[in-house]
Specification:
With about 210 residues, the chain is an all-alpha fold. The protein contains ten helices and no strands. Helix content is about 75%, strand content about 0%. The radius of gyration is 18 Å and the shape is globular.
């Protein structure tokens, strides 16, 4: 997948945040702010991955954010980031029933975030988006866009579908992987509104600017 300069800068920045958060966690595993930054960075980085890897990274983000909530249950930013993570998981899930479970979880977390910080415009907007998301999911899957992006095959994402293997091996797989990555970028980019700001602000305060890109 090709990135422009701004996207590459974001990729480098959030990878820096991820590594710094991991190091900080080793020093202080009860730092809920650090867990929020870590989860937010993983959520941002997920959009640069192929669908199977993006799902794993989203699961990791969910784990970090939920761990932070066990320390600070009222942290509304973490609740909101969890809503984004489950929305992303839903869009990357072809089965509508399974996706609905994720959408419901997302709406629940958005509502909890708004309950903790009443009137927050971003949280209210997220609730509006969550109400429309299942319809968008149905439109995406109904016209075959998702399945084509997943390589035309079933569930696991491990290999390409018949069209990939019937072409000369390497080229077909590369094309499918590019579609896979592009779709993840589009979906996650549409969903993630400001988790990156949370991670960036915390990182900028404590670590200074990210290392220059090579």
């Amino acid at each position: 997948m090709q990135y422009d300069a701004a996207d590459f800068e974001r990729l480098v920045m959030f990878e820096h945040v991820r590594k710094a958060s991991e190091a900080q966690y080793a020093k202080d595993p009860l730092d809920s702010e650090n867990l929020l930054q870590w989860g937010g960075a993983l959520l941002e980085l997920a959009q640069f991955q192929a669908v199977p890897d993006a799902k794993l990274m989203l699961d990791d983000a969910v784990s970090k954010l939920q761990e932070g909530l066990t320390i600070n249950p009222g942290k509304h930013q973490a609740l909101w980031c969890l809503g984004n993570a489950f929305t992303a998981k839903a869009f990357l899930t072809p089965d509508p029933d399974e996706a609905k479970v994720h959408f419901d979880q997302a709406a629940d977390y958005f509502q909890k975030a708004e309950n903790e910080d009443p009137g927050n415009d971003i949280y209210l907007k997220s609730l509006e988006v969550a109400a429309r998301a299942p319809e968008l999911h149905m439109n995406i899957h109904g016209n075959g866009q998702m399945m084509q992006s997943l390589g035309g095959g079933g569930g696991g994402g491990g290999g390409g579908g018949p069209s990939a293997s019937s072409n000369s091996g390497g080229g077909g797989k590369k094309k499918n992987k590019k579609k896979n990555n592009d779709f993840t970028y589009d979906v996650c980019g549409w969903i993630i509104l400001a988790c990156g700001i949370v991670a960036w602000v915390g990182m900028a305060k404590s670590l200074g600017p990210p290392p220059p890109a090579r």
